[in-house]
Amino acid sequence: MPLDLRYPDGKVVSHPDGTTGREVAQSIGPGLARAAVAVEIDGHLRDLDLPISESGDFSVITLDSDHGLDILRHSSAHVLAQAVLDLYPGSTFAIGPPIEDGFYYDFEVSEPFTPDDLDRIEQRMAEIISEDQPFVRVAMSRDEALEAFSDHKFKVEIIENVDPSEVSGGEEVTAYRNNGFVDLCRGPHLPSTGRIPTVKLLRTSGAYWRGDENREQLQRIYGTAWQSNKDLEAYLQRLEEAEKRDHRRLGPELDLYSFPAELGSGLAVWHPKGGQLRKIIEDHSRAVHERYGFDFVFSPHLAKSELWKTSGHLDFYAESMYPGMELDNDQEYRVKPMNCPFHVLIYKSQGRSYRDLPMRLGELGGVYRYEMSGVVHGLLRARGFTQDDSHTFCTEDQLEGELHLHLDFVLKWLKDFGFTDFEADLSTKPEEKYVGEDARWEVSEKYLQQALDAVGVPYRIAEGEGAFYGPKIDMHVRDAIGRRWQCSTIQLDFNLPERFGLEYTAAGNVGERPYMIHCAKAGSLERFIGVLVEHYAGAFPMWLSPVQVSIVPVADRHEEYADAVAGRLRDAGLRAEVDLSSETVGDKIRRALTHKHPAVIVVGDDDVANSTVGLRLYGEDTDTRGVPLIEATNQLVESSKPPSA
Fold this sequence. Notes:
- The protein is of the alpha+beta class.
- The chain has 20 helices and 33 strands.
């Protein structure tokens, strides 16, 4: 029976049953066949030389696509594992997935890898690539796979945990072999190692098997692979720039925050300048929440475990919660990982009518999550942080308008902080495990999509990737060097209203279940600040900068005038400080520029006599002398205006 394949241009072409993806690509054009690395049929990626046995939507995957790069990096990870096993007999390999912009592989070895080891491994990888070893797909039963990998304890554990429903053929397990090296893998892969254009090993780190600090300590090697040397060089330059912007380095240098070892992993303390930065952001958050009609609420940092049982967190989230504390005659309490149940209790504290809705509740609430030490990463992945949580309760008739309002809020928030490049994911109902009526999922997904269409943000529909309790929008931004960050979330929740029995009295005196919308604009405030530090490389726009103006007197006799200038600026609403240290004028100016203060004012004899200042803005090479103080003040006030709430 012939296969009917629908090409990306909509054309349907028949091919004999068993035709390979390479043969189809060849029939389209020899250039496409040479560039092809895999094919996609009805959303499923397949090896180029695997026979096709079903009709459907067909496309050819090349290295200049996201799928192509993932396949390239996954294949490179296999070559990395092959090289390590060649060079270090007795080593064991664990997992090696592609990740954003690269790949890694985890190994159990007798000694940690060194930079010299990476050079050796990279040379061996180059040899394997030059040998153009074919990647050969091997399908086997679960029992055959267990026998084949009996000497590889990590692979045995993976096979034993395979859900037969997740692999084609029920009990079928796949592996890929090249020149005697075999690795458990779903694929697809490049046709051969020789199709890897360029690869570079980057660094090593420690890692725990399964991310569990109670399991085996492994050594992880990170690498990257690209379709050309030009792309690789561009990426390495971005890495160099990212290292300069690392918030873990810049934060302490700018005296914003630090991570004392005495606190423990994943916890920061905020210094006065960092505290000022937080206050600016928190004040802006409250102002914008007020503009959008939210009421502020506050909740405690812990609650009886019974609350977390009712909410379902102890069933679904316990591993990320801190252990319980026995208080009040053996009553167990837990510190909160989320604010949601508290807001639900506020809603439930009295009877609600449709006239009370929508009810929009917002809180800057501290939460605590037990993140594995291996994934803690400065402010970006912390154990204690503040969420700008809001929860809205509304009727179905109000849902469309509320989702538009929330998306408008999210975009305003992100634009206020200088982000302009947005992408969104719309995650829809999972195929199997979910709560809530299908009708609620359908109307919620429809309104979420309509809201995205209305604002014109590019988005992808992540079919089946919604949480079990509701669909959501995740908003991503691109920072100054092109990195993608997930920041804001708009999430429907059909679970908590059901678990807590929430109702409102509808017209006709009928009890109805409200819709519940979670929304985090910054998400974790700590993480958002970490992103901002890296986005701006610490050189914040003036409205955000903890110190907006640094005033440098040339000599001791100018200090009184410098204080007067500072007073004038503060009266105008600016954050100004006077440098009264004994260092030279040049050193003081360099310190202000190193701390990335937006403006530096220098005052000397002529300025005292004429009520002027010397003014230099961050990024400029020289200062402007003799600027009238009133003119400088007005200029700085205009530059420091925050986005309107």
